[in-house]
């Protein structure tokens, strides 16, 4: 779902990350507040004042989304669901779950926690506005509080739309799951409804553009496209997870991999191994001891004129939790590790010794065959 992201900070044990797309949202929000919303609400201020309040408003939205997603994550933690972190992106934020909820009850409580928290935050801001004593004269401070109350109300209300994977869609899935007792069936139907809402937003956006509201119409249409895509992706993700659960990494790995010595120079590595065997990753072994791995990603950073003088030992990636996995571990865990680290290949260990290499493309190839042969329930 996301592109490149920046790790911002850790809060209550959760890593908060910022997707590059959120920068665009922050700029759009700041611009719209500074040039449209606040000049209308509190006319007569200096331009610098409007931009200052606009920046504060964008930061308030940032904090509100984190609060919303944090509540999802804390409920997930209570029920033992691991959360990789919270990522903010152009359409808001998402708590990245490693697994699906184990019951409709857990799904419902996790989903509803976000909107309830946003409504509570909105109520808190409304109370601050009322006690600030600025009912007759609107000040920049009260205008900012009013905006944050309004935006949190909108955030909660929008998320309650029964369009999976929005919070309302997850509440719908919980209800369907409780009714039929089948999570995949519930997810498939909730995803179809979510796609329907997405296409409806696209149609509404196009209609708005035709009526002259170009900016607003395009934004609504983009949100619709996002919902439609996210709904389908969420169902595919569930099918993928269920297809791979219980499948050990050893089933997908290539056994007896070609290993290289750490004392090879890069010219020897490329000529005698990369070009001969066609692999883009080789385990590095010395006296039967696994030291790490070396691949094309490391070689590319060294100019060819220096290949003769640089050894494998100098550029290899040492063994770590980021590039190794046990042969008996679930393939789901392997894919999650690959997504987190960006490594498309992992060293596979069996009883502490090198047993093979597992590649993302091999898992996906067999997964595609499995999904193609399966009939959705």
Attribute tags:
single chain; 377 residues; CBS-domain; 4-stranded mixed β-sheet; globular
List the helices and strands and how they pair.
Elements: E1 5-11, E2 14-19, H1 20-41, H2 47-78, E3 83-89, E4 92-97, H3 104-131, H4 140-159, H5 167-180, H6 183-210, H7 214-244, E5 254-255, H8 266-277, E6 281-286, E7 289-295, H9 296-299, H10 312-315, E8 317-318, E9 324-326, H11 331-341, E10 345-350, E11 353-359, H12 360-373
Parallel strand pairs: 2-3, 9-10
Antiparallel strand pairs: 1-2, 3-4, 5-11, 6-7, 7-8, 10-11
Helix pairs in contact: 1-2, 2-3, 2-4, 3-4, 3-5, 5-6, 6-7
Account of the 3D structure:
The chain has 377 residues and is of the alpha+beta class. The protein has three domains: 5-160, no CATH class; 181-244; 249-373, Roll (CBS-domain), CATH 3.10.580.10. Helices cover 58% and strands 16% of the residues. It has twelve helices and eleven strands. The chain has helices at 20-41, 47-78, 104-131, 140-159, 167-180, 183-210, 214-244, 266-277, 296-299, 312-315, 331-341, 360-373; strands at 5-11, 14-19, 83-89, 92-97, 254-255, 281-286, 289-295, 317-318, 324-326, 345-350, 353-359. The strands form three sheets. The chain has a four-stranded mixed beta sheet with strand order 1-2-3-4. Strands 5-11-10-9 form a four-stranded mixed beta sheet. 35% of the residues are buried. The model has no long low-confidence stretch (mean pLDDT 83).
